[in-house]
Amino acid sequence: MSTTAPELARAAARWLALLESGAATEGDHAGLQQWRDSNPQHEQIWQKAQLLRQRFTDLPPALAMASLDRPQPGRRTVLKRALGVAALVPAAWLISRQLPIDVWRADLHTATGERRQVPLADGSALQLNTATAVDVDLARSRLTLVDGEMALTVPGAGAMTVQTRYGQVIVSQGEVCVRQLSSNCLVSVLKGAVQVRDLRGQLVTLQGGRQARLQADGLGASTPFDVLQLDWREGVLTAQNQGLGDFLRELERYRPGVLRWDPSLEALRVTGSFQLADTERILSLLASTLALEVQSRTRYWVTLMPRKKLA
Amino acid sequence: MNDAALPTHDPRSGLHSLYRDHRSWLESWLRRRLGNAWDAADLSQDTFLRVLASAQPVAQLHEPRAYLVTVGKRLLANFHQRRSLEQAYLNALASLPEASVPSPEQRWLLLETLQALDELLDGLPPLVRRAFLWSQLDGLGYREIAERLQVSERTVKRYMAQAYEHCLLVDL
Lengths: 311, 172
Known about the structure:
The complex is a heterodimer of chains A (311) and B (172).
Chain A: H1 5-20, H2 26-38, H3 40-57, H4 61-68, H5 78-88, E1 97-98, E2 105-109, E3 116-119, E4 125-128, E5 133-137, E6 142-147, E7 149-154, E8 160-164, E9 167-180, E10 185-198, E11 203-207, E12 210-215, E13 218-219, E14 223-224, E15 236-243, H6 244-252, E16 258-261, E17 269-275, H7 279-289, E18 292-298, E19 301-306
Parallel strand pairs in A: 1-3, 6-8, 16-19
Antiparallel strand pairs in A: 2-5, 3-4, 4-7, 5-6, 7-9, 8-9, 9-10, 10-11, 10-12, 12-13, 12-14, 15-17, 18-19
Helix pairs in contact in A: 1-3, 2-3, 4-5
Chain B: H1 6-9, H2 11-34, H3 37-53, H4 64-94, H5 104-121, H6 126-138, H7 142-149, H8 153-171
């Protein structure tokens, strides 16, 4: 049975629209499979449609959006065009931008997937990880970690205090990472030593190479830590024989949208260094090395499933 | 095969006189619309090439200038389309921080891809095009698109089917 090109295109288009609507039932999926199997032409156009989608997926979204969704020529003014473009470049694409700040007060923040390095006017260097907000008040030598994770290097000209939800970290000379979690705050000292003051006013020294959790009831016991976990500062996510579940929970922080995985994948082991700038690529690397497949309904809705055994 | 019939129907021989008689007229027509001579010369060449490639036997044209203008207008629209895409692309590049600007080679590849996709999407109603781009590039769900466009989710689904159908047909 042969079908005309417009009929084929229409049928495939309807399946695609149904599938992406998020309302497709299991019956619909079965129906689609049946449609694909019933005629080689159907399968062919389906493959073509997948290639079409791929062409869009491979593009950097902000650049592509600004170019393809530009105001159409002949309408309005150049000004409107310029505004349209500026408004269409979202922060997520602006990875690891560098803005020297010489102001004394600033509220800094990063979007999901964004990193930012900020040299401060007093000579300290501040780095914000994904989805992080920090208020800077240099007049009082104080940084407030509102949310997320930050790294701070203080050269030693003067102490800097990092205010967190569960207490303060005072750095006079050294390098420290502070990560705000839901019920505690993780303090890791890379170089030098820091003073930690908990909510009750207790002051404890945390040495280089150690980390500890600052909680409502004070600083927990310190442990040595793996410096690999701070590789985000170089834009890298490193795993050494890590459980896939833990790895994905970490990766999720850097991805907008929903990442889900089948519980059976939780215990698979991951080893490697991955570039955080391209989390899509990390997922496809996982798929090519582990027995799993990536099912993405959209860029922002991704599910990892065990790879189906070939019949 | 009847060789004797060829000379009068050979599109190239017809093209020759068409080119000789109307090229400078077409170029000045294009120049008035483009505002510069070199783009006009390029586009006039393209127009003649397009005529050569078309199935229409040139010798049988009753109104050669009207025909050239029809082809020329299409190329002109195409030219403006590419220009405006290029401009939007360059503006977007310029607003990126230096560290995340792609390499020159990537920039060209990207521009070529974008031009191909722009042509592919050409002819879609603006709202359909926008809904499709939001879905494909930003991964927005139908509900979110519906809210942004102030239409129903059903309509968004229809838009998406329309866009896919259009692209698959062009691409076939």
